[in-house]
Write a structure and sequence with these properties.
It comes from Streptomyces daliensis. The protein has 18 helices and two strands. By secondary structure, the protein is mainly alpha-helical.
């Protein structure tokens, strides 16, 4: 998959002059981004992991072991492992959120951990509901430990997320918990919409964006506001940061949708044509079906026929049949439209930062993370 970098497109909003600081050009910022994003993600992972481990240690056996396997800390036999724990975008955003409010990054750490716990609660349940057998290059929890454990551990992680915030016992913690529970409810709404769309012949682009805004945008929006709330930011500041996170989430999901069809399995850790195998009405599919032309009509015919097949029959398709559907989506313009939508949402996210009074280096780091989301390959 190739996505043109949105850096140049966003440079008009990302290079605004701040008092006492020079204007940063797109080319100069690219150098800073490449050097800083990895460090930002690693900082989030390094600070959050010990607190995540302590939270998981509270779980009754065998849920503690199952959760440790999911996070990549142990292998299926219980031996210590250095598995891929994910990109850690949400913890990185929560720590930056606290800094945007003028607080230390550590102030946002309970929020970072709470959001990461909710995110992984959703992954455990999604993998089971979608029948995904691979995540982060190894077997998913339900495949190794069974569906019941996947459900129970997911529920436990959600409970832990709220527990960690409420234990702070402050007014800010109460405000942060309200934002997290609202985001979680929207996330669940989005998953319900996603499942229902799999059984419909047609879904509009607007419906798909609403679903993805709930499923992905809501939690990223929470991640990038929760640290600020814990740091004492007012609602206006938190809401502006939420707007950045919401549109960043839509950009993130648009890229995910592209990777779900055309991503390299060695990079994504999932099967080829992953979303097509699950009959997902993702953005490229919906945009292609909404287009006019022979490729769109032929795709609609195939998907109408596919909807009448059982999942077992559908899973018997060979690679060529999935490749043919992917080719029709691309010919109908679904791939290009989704790539452009990722860039549009990226630009909107960056513009939301202009309304927040924050240190210039924090803003640059938020922009760098947004750029990373749109040009990633996994």
């Amino acid at each position: 998959m190739t996505i043109d970098s949105p850096i140049e497109a966003a440079s008009s909003t990302a290079s605004t002059e701040r008092e006492g600081e020079p204007v940063t050009t797109a080319n100069e910022r690219t150098v800073v981004d490449n050097a800083s994003v990895k460090a930002l993600l690693e900082r989030g992972r390094t600070l959050a992991t010990p607190v995540l481990r302590a939270a998981v240690d509270r779980l009754a056996k065998p849920m503690d072991t199952v959760a440790a396997y999911h996070f990549g800390w142990i292998d299926a036999a219980g031996r210590p492992s250095e598995g891929d724990g994910g990109k850690a975008v949400r913890p990185a955003l929560a720590l930056l959120s606290a800094e945007a409010a003028g607080a230390s990054p550590e102030t946002g750490l309970p929020g970072a951990v709470a959001v990461e716990l909710v995110h992984n609660f959703s992954l455990l349940h999604d993998d089971l509901m979608d029948g995904d057998e691979q995540r982060r290059h190894r077997d998913t929890v339900w495949k190794v430990h069974g569906p019941a454990q996947a459900i129970l551990v997911g529920d436990a992680l959600f409970a832990l997320a709220n527990e960690i915030l409420l234990e702070l016992g402050t007014a800010e913690a109460g405000r942060a918990t309200r934002r997290l529970t609202t985001a979680t409810r929207k996330l669940i709404d989005g998953q319900a919409q996603d499942i229902s769309y799999e059984h419909r012949e047609r879904v509009t682009v607007e419906e798909c964006l609403e679903m993805e805004g709930n499923k992905t945008g809501a939690l990223l929006a929470c991640a990038v506001s929760i640290g600020a709330v814990l740091g004492g930011a007012d609602d206006r500041t938190a809401d502006a940061l939420e707007s950045y996170g919401y549109h960043l989430g839509l950009a993130f999901q648009a890229v995910d949708d592209l990777l779900g069809i055309w991503g390299d399995p060695d990079a994504t850790g999932k099967q080829t044509w992953s979303d097509l195998r699950q009959r997902k009405k993702s953005l490229p599919v919906v945009a292609a079906l909404a287009a006019e032309g022979p490729a769109s009509r032929r795709l609609a015919e195939l998907m109408t026929a596919d909807a009448k097949k059982s999942q077992a029959e559908f899973e018997d398709f060979d690679e060529a049949e999935f490749a043919a559907r992917a080719a029709l989506i691309e010919q109908a313009g679904g791939r290009e439209w989704t790539s452009q939508e990722a860039q549009r949402q990226h630009t909107t996210a960056i513009a939301a930062l202009d309304t927040v009074d924050m240190p210039g280096h924090v803003r640059d780091q938020l922009v760098a993370l947004a750029d990373f989301v749109v040009v990633r390959q996994r």
